[in-house]
From TrEMBL:
Subunit structure: Monomer. Associates with 30S ribosomal subunit, binds 16S rRNA.
Cellular compartments annotated: Cytoplasm
Cofactors required: Zn(2+)
Natural source organism: Cellulomonas composti
Protein name, per record: Small ribosomal subunit biogenesis GTPase RsgA
Pfam families in the cross-refs: RsgA_GTPase
Cofactor, how bound (note): Binds 1 zinc ion per subunit.
The protein's role, per its UniProt record: One of several proteins that assist in the late maturation steps of the functional core of the 30S ribosomal subunit. Helps release RbfA from mature subunits. May play a role in the assembly of ribosomal proteins into the subunit. Circularly permuted GTPase that catalyzes slow GTP hydrolysis, GTPase activity is stimulated by the 30S ribosomal subunit.
Enzyme class name: hydrolase
Major place of residence: cytoplasm
Stretches assigned to the CP-type G domain: 87-244
Family that this chain belongs to: Belongs to the TRAFAC class YlqF/YawG GTPase family. RsgA subfamily.
Matching NCBIfam families: ribosome small subunit-dependent GTPase A
Length: 343
């Protein structure tokens, strides 16, 4: 028998899965109360039933196919990936098979434009469509002006200001919850992600933080969790992302910084470093005030980070390749490898 299930939560020791019909595949009416099933994981975090050669670790949003005592992770359509801090650790998949990444940022305290740019790059890289949601609009006198400021750095991205306490501005976000759609909410701790998820779900599904004087939350959410909604969409709430590592991707950077990318293309030298060259269109735009110092710095920082991450990924790849050859050579000596001498 073949069963298709979706990962609701992936803890260290187990994954919680839901059958397809209640996990937002849009294929059936939502029964709302379908119980999640717990599948324990092996010590290395892999599914015990999984094809032994596969070392994929299931992530929230993954589709698993369970058939004849085997579990297989379906290829991910999209994946929100972060660079894990450790030197040896690989990248970490935050959410799989996501259609829309809601980048949540608070209006009070002031939104951090650099963080929005960073999360947008992460979102573009995932393959999903980013949408910015500016929360706590009720706490500021001019939410529209602030929204315009954020929209100016979120090129080609819809930006919505919302107030959950006043139930204002949520309709365009609700419109994204189409049957079968998967949305993930990312943003800093205290941005109001869980509050937003509860408002969109129409019920208290995630615990939210108490108010603090500085407007920040207290890291209330501690795990990622997929929440099936009654309309057939699913929402994934994530804990506040702190110092989120960018995963290198020049395309995603060029999309987030489409304005800078257009300038780069018209620099006189194709290998322009945009630091001192004559005919550098980026420096010219800076001098004319067409490009702000802030955005220029933000772009440079993310570029450097992406380049560093890419080099590190290459080093990991090279190490993995060396390890593979070492194994093959050892197997060969033990007479197990292909082409090994007959005993
Ligand atoms: N005034 C106002 N407060 C809000 C709004 N949305 C959220 N808050 C408050 O902001 C605080 C943080 O909200 P949470 O939803 O817990 O934030 P979070 O982003 O999930 O935080 P973590 O779980 O730590 O990542 C809570 O006290 C909320 O009540 C809003 O629209 N207006
Ligand atoms: Zn240049």
């Amino acid at each position: 028998m073949v069963e298709r299930v979706r990962v609701v939560r992936a803890d260290r020791g187990a994954v919680l899965v839901l059958p397809a019909t209640s996990a937002g595949d849009g294929s059936g009416p939502d029964e709302g109360g379908a119980a999640a099933e717990r599948v324990p994981l092996d010590r290395d975090g892999t599914l015990p039933l999984l094809d032994a050669r596969s070392h994929d670790v299931p992530s929230v949003g993954d589709w698993l196919v369970l058939a004849d005592g085997h579990a297989r992770i379906e290829p991910r359509r999209t994946a929100l990936v972060r660079d894990s801090a450790g030197r040896t650790a690989q990248t970490q998949t935050l959410a799989a098979n996501v259609d829309v990444v809601l980048v949540a940022e608070h209006l009070d305290p002031d939104p951090d434009l650099g963080r929005v740019e960073r999360l947008l790059t992460l979102a573009w890289r995932s393959g999903a469509t980013p949408v910015v949601v500016l929360t706590k609009a009720d706490l500021v006198p001019d939410p529209d002006g602030m929204t315009a400021d954020v929209a100016a750095v979120a090129l080609g991205v819809d930006v919505h200001a919302v107030s959950v306490v006043r139930d204002e501005g949520l309709d365009p976000v609700r419109a994204l919850l189409t049957p079968g759609a998967t949305l993930v909410v990312v943003g800093p701790s205290g941005a109001g992600k869980s509050t937003l998820v509860n408002a969109l779900a129409g019920r208290e599904v995630m615990a939210t933080g108490g108010r603090r004087a500085d407007g920040r939350g207290r890291h209330t959410t501690t795990h990622r969790e997929l929440v099936p909604l009654s309309g057939g969409a699913v929402l994934i709430d994530t804990p506040g992302l702190r110092g989120i590592g960018l995963v290198a991707d020049a395309d995603a950077l060029a999309t987030t910084f489409a304005d800078v990318d257009a300038l780069v293309r018209s620099c006189r030298f194709s290998d322009c470093t945009h630091e001192r060259e004559p005919g550098c269109a980026v420096l010219e735009a800076l001098a004319l005030g067409d490009l702000s110092e802030r955005r220029y710095d933000s772009w440079r920082r993310l570029e450097r980070e992406a380049a560093y991450q890419e080099r590190r990924a290459d080093a990991r790849l090279a190490a993995a390749e060396r390890a593979r050859w070492k194994r093959i050579t050892q197997d060969h000596r033990r007479g197990r490898g292909p082409g090994a001498p007959r005993p």
